[in-house]
């Protein structure tokens, strides 16, 4: 009969597949019948209904469950790293706030007190001293100023009094810098074909000579000759004059004599070449604006309590922000049953305990203020600081040095905030601080997990490839079985089986 050469049975069909483990109704042998006749099910339907893509995806999905868990662990590590970064920023802000109060010099903050419209302003430095001074400004410092005759165009008209005749055309202007009889010095500036001959060229040549005179082109608006050259001494009190203009068709006249500033401080005469007079009142700069007349202006230098109060307010706020952040991430939510990412963290507990201890100890040099509570800072039951600004301001008013000694201390007795600041510097150390250690540990775990994820991804990719190959082979076997089934049916129909 040709192919197939032997009798067809259920066993022979299973052996023909060549792949074990396939489920489905391949047919059954009728009980009590002989003659080798079998009942064959529809193998074509089995082949068509077998969704191998879905089988592959189901197997891959099952094998990917550990990968999903690893990715969730990665997300938790990233979240924990971000949380430590937030805590670190809060701690750095608190450190910076404490740095404005931890040194004795931080309390050398002064401000001037002046009547309105006094004719001058004052900048007080850290070296100022408390006190009162009477100031009289007699005159301001001014530069010498001269101006030239005008010309029609600043950028095209030649300033030479003879037409340029090639490379040999030039002009020379001679200045006397200073007073003729007291150390005056002659300086010359040349213009020629190389520099150019316009008013703008002359101004540039004078400025490039660096002889103590500043030149600029100005528009005066004079009919027919609206542009002139304005010259001024580079420093107040320095006189100069134009002594010669060889080949230059300009004339100059002085419009302002140079002068020094004259003032008295507590009756003592002061002379300055600048209107910003430094250290006439020790530790200050007087910015002169106009003469004051003969009536002295009272200047008082006092402690800038407002700045110190603002610094302390920032200190309290940044501390409470830090504690809020630590509590937020290390607490336990009874409503949701969820623990914060830092719950049980030794580092979080260490930060909070060390700072709290430093805030509640006694300090000072034996004066009237011994604790933070004495000056308006109270440590609350919830771990926050409470700040009574009025009590603190009263403490500053009555014993400024005592407050300074308590907070910043001195060379002999470190202050409370001095010690606290040292702790924050240690905690935020970028090389070996505890937060750095936490972040390093997380980074190490993350790197190890990344390698494990990569290994698992390769493993799953290999599994997918093997399953796709296996099911492709299976489809081939089922296709062969369909051909065999059709042949068997034909033989049955013809009565050959």
TrEMBL record:
Domain Flagellar hook-associated protein 2 C-terminal: from-to ranges: 261-481
- Describe the location of the Flagellar hook-associated protein 2 N-terminal domain by residue ranges: 49-142
Give the GO terms filed under biological process for this record: bacterial-type flagellum-dependent cell motility; cell adhesion
**Which residues lie in coiled coils?**
446-484
Q: One Pfam family this chain carries?
A: FliD_N
Tell me if Coiled coil is a UniProt keyword of this record.
yes
Tell me which UniProt keywords the record has, alphabetically. Bacterial flagellum, Cell projection, Cilium, Coiled coil, Flagellum, Secreted
Subcellular localization is given as: Secreted; Bacterial flagellum
Domain of life, per UniProt, equals Bacteria
Which InterPro entries is this protein grouped with?
Answer: FliD (IPR040026), FliD_C (IPR010809), FliD_N (IPR003481)
Broad class of where this protein is predominantly found: secreted
**Coiled coil in keyword set:** yes
**Cellular compartments per GO CC:** bacterial-type flagellum filament cap; bacterial-type flagellum hook; extracellular region
Subunit details: Homopentamer.
Described purpose of this protein according to its UniProt entry: Required for morphogenesis and for the elongation of the flagellar filament by facilitating polymerization of the flagellin monomers at the tip of growing filament. Forms a capping structure, which prevents flagellin subunits (transported through the central channel of the flagellum) from leaking out without polymerization at the distal end.
Q: To which protein family does this belong?
A: Belongs to the FliD family.
- The name this protein goes by in its record: Flagellar hook-associated protein 2
Give the species: Leptospirillum ferriphilum (strain ML-04)
